[in-house]
From TrEMBL:
Feature: compositional bias, Low complexity: 8-28
Region Disordered, residue ranges: 1-32
Membrane-crossing segments per the record: none
Protein name: Protein kinase domain-containing protein
This protein's record includes keyword Cell division: no
Keyword ATP-binding: yes
Domain of life according to the entry: Eukaryota
Keyword vocabulary terms for this entry: ATP-binding, Nucleotide-binding
Domain Protein kinase intervals: 1-336
Length: 336
């Protein structure tokens, strides 16, 4: 379902030049007025968010969450301790209706709940004219939202506050664990990687580069669905056939940008996907030698010789189709 866009007033982003300098104060990430991370006054916007059907977490909500969490652990035979910082912080106040922010989240994020059904959400505040909002709004539009290649985190609402140049993006709360099941089969693991590559193909087909692909920016709903988050560095390149960038500061920076040179934004994403696959293999304990040649090509130091995301996905599918069924059913502990 596409998100509801409330009080919309912003327009599409301006056209980009052929060469985009991602390190300049006029165009990149968190250094310019529109694209830097912001710290909104959550209390001041609480009622606006509630009128749209969402409730920010209060001390009562946090205490109830911990109580349910402990009950679940006890039912499974675990011993629990209530001396946890989050619970202690929620108890240190006399008003249970007071907002209680998760200290582990940055200032532009707040946990909450959808009032009508109790769905847990994470609300992100961004500038109304930020590139992140432009990209997320576009990828969440009715014409793109239901494309099976689109693995953007589900956006439940886009709440604009024009007077403050703010927009609150309401996202479903998913887990940060790339592979949550233990044990997990090789099929599920490869399926997770495939969705990550497929979304890059989808974005690139719409002239968008994420520019910060990494494991920390991939979430799961525990139902074998995976999604991208954090489009703070993302850029649109509509009308530019061979875009070039320099100086971007994503988690996985390819050598051409790290050395101060010029790079292809799409091939930057391909490099990051290759690095992400290597890290995922290390974290999950999977050893998939069939992927070595593909990952090697994705990490080619010459960006012009790296495959496109579409070519990488096609190669990935070919590799997966050649792995025996019995091996695909194996868990990581048996896949060596």
């Amino acid at each position: 379902m596409s998100p509801v866009l409330r009080r919309s007033s912003s327009s599409d982003s301006d056209s980009e030049s052929q060469l985009s300098d991602c390190s300049s104060s006029s165009s990149c990430g968190d250094e310019d007025e529109f694209n830097k991370r912001i710290a909104p006054n959550w209390c001041a916007h609480r009622l606006i968010i509630e009128r749209c059907g969402f409730r920010l977490d209060t001390r009562r909500d946090v205490k109830l969450w911990y109580q349910h969490y402990w009950e679940s652990l006890i039912s499974q035979g675990y011993t629990v301790t209530k001396d946890l910082p989050g619970y202690t912080r929620a108890c240190n106040g006399s008003d249970d209706n007071e907002l209680c922010k998760d200290a582990g989240l940055p200032e532009n994020l707040f946990r909450g709940t959808r009032c009508k059904d109790g769905t847990k959400v994470v609300i992100k505040a961004v500038h109304l004219r930020s590139r992140e909002y432009d990209v997320v709004r576009y990828l969440s539009s009715p014409s793109l939202r239901n494309d099976p290649r689109n693995h953007l985190i589900p956006i439940l609402d886009l709440i604009e506050v024009p007077k403050d140049d703010l927009v609150f993006m309401v996202m479903e709360e998913w887990s940060s664990h790339l592979i949550p099941e233990t044990p997990c089969t090789l099929r599920l693991y490869l399926g997770a990687l495939r969705q990550c590559i497929e979304h890059a193909v989808f974005m690139h087909s719409h002239h968008i580069a994420h520019l910060d692909i990494s494991i920390r920016n991939m979430l799961t709903d525990y139902r074998s669905n995976y999604a991208y988050i954090d489009f703070e560095l993302a850029r649109r390149f509509d009308g530019i056939h061979h875009p070039r960038i320099r100086g971007c500061r994503g988690t996985e920076v390819p050598p051409e940008l790290e050395q101060g040179g010029v790079g292809d934004p799409y091939k930057t994403d391909v490099w990051a996907l290759g690095r992400m696959i290597l890290r995922a293999c290390s974290l999950t304990g999977y050893h998939v030698p069939e992927l070595a040649a593909l990952v090697g090509a994705m990490l080619n130091p010459n960006f012009e010789q790296r495959p496109t995301a579409a070519v990488a996905l096609k190669s990935f599918d070919t590799i997966m189709s050649c792995i025996p069924e019995a091996r695909l059913r194996m868990s990581s502990g048996c896949n060596h």
